[in-house]
Amino acid sequence: MSVRDREEFLAAVHVGVLGVVDPRGVRAPLLVPVWYGYQPGGEVIVETGRDTIKAQLISATGRFSLCVQDESAPYRYVSVEGPVVGTDDPVSISTHAALAHRYLDAPTAAAYLEANQHQLVEDVVLRMRPQHWRTADFSAFAAEFGS
């Protein structure tokens, strides 16, 4: 994918799979589905509980990866990896609301935000600067087999 295509794909709404290594090397990397935010040229943001294993491992390693994909043919994916360049602690109301509205329709987002106000105290936002990108777009490959 071109730089523009990969950034637009990452900025679209997908559930991401966040990956972070166990710095002790005792376990395989932790991989978990997450909501995330991204604007082309910016940072990837992820909200998570301050005391989660995910947050602890990211704090220890100082970096994480995120993979997003299109699960319908022709398949595409973007994977980014990079350092954490900032942490918002606690999460701001505006960031918390923006993530909810990114993934949920307005009434569901409002209900979610009302039910999860505790996250404003318990969560942090991790900001990652994409440093390494891996991408694939199988549309050209799929076109060879089209009718």
Describe this structure as you would to a colleague.
A hairpin with a 5-residue loop joins strand 5 (63-70) and strand 6 (76-88). The chain has helices at 3-11, 53-61, 93-103, 106-115, 119-122, 139-143; strands at residues 16-20, 30-34, 36-37, 44-49, 63-70, 76-88, 123-128, 132-137. The model has no long low-confidence stretch (mean pLDDT 94). The two termini are 24 Å apart. The longest helix is centred in the middle third of the chain and has 11 residues, at 93-103. By secondary structure, it is α+β, with helices and mostly antiparallel strands. Helix 3 (93-103) packs across helix 4 (106-115).
What's the topology here?
Elements (H helix, E strand, L loop, with lengths): L2 H9 L4 E5 L9 E5 L1 E2 L6 E6 L3 H9 L1 E8 L5 E13 L4 H11 L2 H10 L3 H4 E6 L3 E6 L1 H5 L4
Antiparallel strand pairs: 1-2, 1-5, 3-4, 4-7, 5-6, 6-7, 6-8
